[in-house]
Amino acid sequence: MRLDVSNLRSGYGRVEVLHGLSFSVDSGTAVGLFGPNGHGKTTLLRTISGLVPATTGKIVFDGKDIAGANAEAVVDCGIVHVAQASTLFPRMTVLEALTLGAYRKAAWPHRRTSLKKVFSIFPRLAERRSQHCRTLSGGERQMAAIGVGLMGMPRLLMLDEPTLGLAPKIRQELARQIGLVAQTGVSLIVVDQDVDLLLGLCPRLYLIEKGIVALDIQDRNELKHQDIIQRYFGSAA
Amino acid sequence: MTGNKSIIEVRGLGKSFGSLVAVDDVSFTIGRGEILGIAGPNGAGKTTLFNLISKIPFGPDRGEVVFDGRRIDRSKPHEIFRLGLARTFQKETTFAKLTVEENIRLAAVYGGALRGSELTSAVERALDILDFTRLRAEPAATLPVYETKRLMIASATVTAPKVLMLDEPASGLNSVEQADLHQLILRLRDEGASILLIEHILPLLFGVSERVMVMDFGKKLLEGPPSEVARDQRVIDAYLGGQAMESADAP
Amino acid sequence: MGSVIVAGLVSGSIYALIASGLSLVWGALGVFNFAHGVLLMMGAFAAWWVSDPAGLGLGLFAGIAASLIFMLAAGSILYALLVRPWIGTPAAELTVIMTTIAGAMFLENLALYTFGARLKALDQIVTGTVTIAGTAMHAQNLLVIILAPVLLCSLALFLKLSKHGLAIRAIAQNSEAARLLGIKVERTYFITFGVSALLAGIAGVMIGGLFNITPSMGNDPLLRAFLVVVFGGLGSLPGTIIAAYVIALIEATSSYYIGIYWTPVVLFSVLIAILLLRPNGLLGRSSS
User: What does the pLDDT look like over B82-132, one tens digit per residue?
Assistant: First the structure.
């Protein structure tokens, strides 16, 4: 379940956003991506998941190059991308959306077990299982989106700003749960503005700036949060 | 008691959707020039509270809202805005194809009914306070997250409202941007607005608010100075989790 | 009075079948299929040609079976030629309106050329008359009144409970999120269109058994279906079904008591009044 991205270029129309980005995720580990807004973190996830076509470069997952594969094929490999601030499916109930999360062939037979797991992580979702997605508050929708992602039994889970809009207690609980997911051997990519969260969760961090990796932090003990903020955000302010 | 020290008085506000009680008998006041933080778990009814006060997209089932001495819970949304109560939203509400300046101008013309020299000076003032003079001709669609949020605030404040309600402005911002937003909120208060702030980012919430009101399950749980609220066991259990202490103390 | 209700229920059933097909395609693919009426007509002609002695003469049930299979094939070809090339392009909605109108004109004239304009009819599935609650009706009418709701309920259950039904609804509500779940969007479009064509064909067979078969038989029903879909609320299947029966009953009542001449006036007046009160249709929602 190792992911190796090399020299990836992609963008929207004539605007290139990723300018030859390379990074990797060791099998069964968690990697954190942070950096200024608008510099390619979300585009990177969308290129890996197949929503945005790669212009050049390689995306090798578990030995297979999936650059250029369409979204459905990427999901079938076990890569699940939980998009940022997703509106989910407004007119479906939470239960229906979660069930649909197990759509991919490998996950569908296990959907009942997966559902129990998701409800134990997010009891609030169990309470709201018969409500339509559009009636959920922003934070509840966020939890539901992550729940839907987990239902796909991912081998690589990519979370785009999972704590966006979540209350502090839930944020801590979510961080804990993501940590548990990481421990089950699922490879993880987490994009977030909360660098503390990433430091607590991921042994390896990448700073993404201007469409490439500006810094590869291989041992999180080597840099403290304050140093990172000072050195790499101070200049952007 | 006419309470002319408070700019907004909310009494017994309530709203239900069928059997779901979203806001349950909420009462509070906010004084002139005060910054009131509103916190609470996801789904506690905070945004619904803003909806009820501004009547966008709906008003309350029960209760009253008194703004600057007059009742507004029966008024129309645009009347409420003209009276001087503005709000921002959690999702992006800018007009993508218009420039920054055009967005702000739109709010001033249609929301505030400003014209002529009054209009021009209001727009220039907003561009200045919100730090947009350099970006004024940029299309809103090209703005990164923080600039988009600033634009939404600029559109809301161009008419110099007496009360500004901000709904989770700091979500998605990095720590440098959060610090900048903190200063921006203080600047807006100094320009004469009272501010209601819904926020989950604790350093900002506890750092900028003079008082914090916590909601849970549609009800007001408690209200008080940040340090008190942060130490309250009920708040820790329902909302803060373990992070409580450090965040309240950090400036 | 009883016969008015029967007439209303029969028309309502047929309208509901036709409009549901349109509504499905609109919801999932975001396009409006103006060739839906000729699909109905092709279903009727296919059944006729296989069953009638003037064609293959294989009998009614072979005719219906052949028609259903033919509808799936015809729907697929229509989708591939007239719809798929433009899905996802910026002006998809408008372009597909044009291509499907063009296709409809072509196929209608092809049918005219192949079969001639003389009226034809399908044998009835069940013959004779039945009396219920003091009202006499053709047995075929009763069949339609019972069969259509059964089919529509099955459709609703399919959408609500089955994996593919959920997928169709997902694409209609958030196509990007659907893709990120591994839903094969292309294939789902295809299935949706196929189901829609099948519904049109069934409606065609029903009309063929009750009324006449002509190359232009699909035009009026399509117009009615359009009304139903708008009136019931775009994208809402329950709204569409309710609207179908409401419109049909208004038509039947008005035709009987006021006369066929004035019926369109009555119908449209009612629709305009309701749209003034509820601009998004009975159960529709504002576009998001």
Answer: 999 999 998 888 998 999 999 999 999 988 888 999 999 999 999 998 889
CB within 8 Å of B91: residues ≥ 6 apart = A85
Q: Which chain A positions have a beta carbon within 8 Å of C183's beta carbon?
A: 72, 100, 103
Is pLDDT of B4 > 70? no
Q: Of A232-236, B160-164, B241-245, C125-129, give the range with the top mean pLDDT.
A: B160-164
| Phi, psi of B37, rounded to the nearest 5 degrees | -90, 145
Cα dihedral A132, A134, A140, A144, rounded to 10, equals 60
CB contact under 8 A, A92 and C173: yes
Beta strands in B61-160 (DSSP E): 62-67, 70-71, 85-87
Lookup: tokens for B201: 């980012």
Which single residue is written with the structure tokens 């601030």? A85
Which residue has better confidence, B165 or A234?
B165
Query: B73 in contact with A at a CB cutoff of 8 Å?
Result: no
Q: Give the residue among B241, B38, B169, B245 at the shortest CA–CA distance from A168.
A: B241
Distance CA C152, CA B73 (A): 45
Enumerate domains of chain C plus CATH numbers: 2-277 (1.10.3470)
Structure tokens given for C33: 């299929």
Contacts of A124 in chain B (CB under 8 A): 42-43
The Cα-based distances of B36 to B42, B44, B211, B217, C251 in angstroms read 18, 17, 5, 19, 60
Q: Which has the closest alpha carbon to C45: C224, C214, C199? A: C214
CA distance C174 to C180: 10
CA A23 to chain centroid, in Å, comes to 15
The whole-number average pLDDT for the span B33-48 is 92
Q: pLDDT tens digits for B204-219?
A: 999 999 999 999 999 9
CB proximity B245 to A under 8 Å? no
Tell me the residues of chain B between 127 and 146 that have a Cβ less than 8 Å away from chain A.
Answer: 144-146
Domains by residue range for chain B, with CATH:
1-84+161-251 (3.40.50.300), 92-160 (no CATH)
Largest CA distance in chain B: 54
Q: Is the dihedral of CA C101, C106, C110, C113 positive or negative?
A: positive
If you count residue pairs, one on A and one on C, with CB atoms under 8 Å apart, how many are there? Answer: 63
Name the closest residue on chain A to residue B180, using Cα atoms. Answer: A237
Residue of A nearest to B169 (CA): A165
What does the alpha-carbon distance between residue C193 and residue C74 come to, in Å, rounded to a whole number?
10
What's the average model confidence in pLDDT over A163-169? 85
Question: pLDDT per residue over C206-250, tens digit each?
Answer: 888 888 888 998 998 898 888 888 888 767 788 889 889 989 998
**pTM value > 0.90:** no
CB-based burial label for A68 (10 Å; 0-12, 13-18, 19+): middle
How close, in Å, is residue B160 to chain A by CA atoms?
27
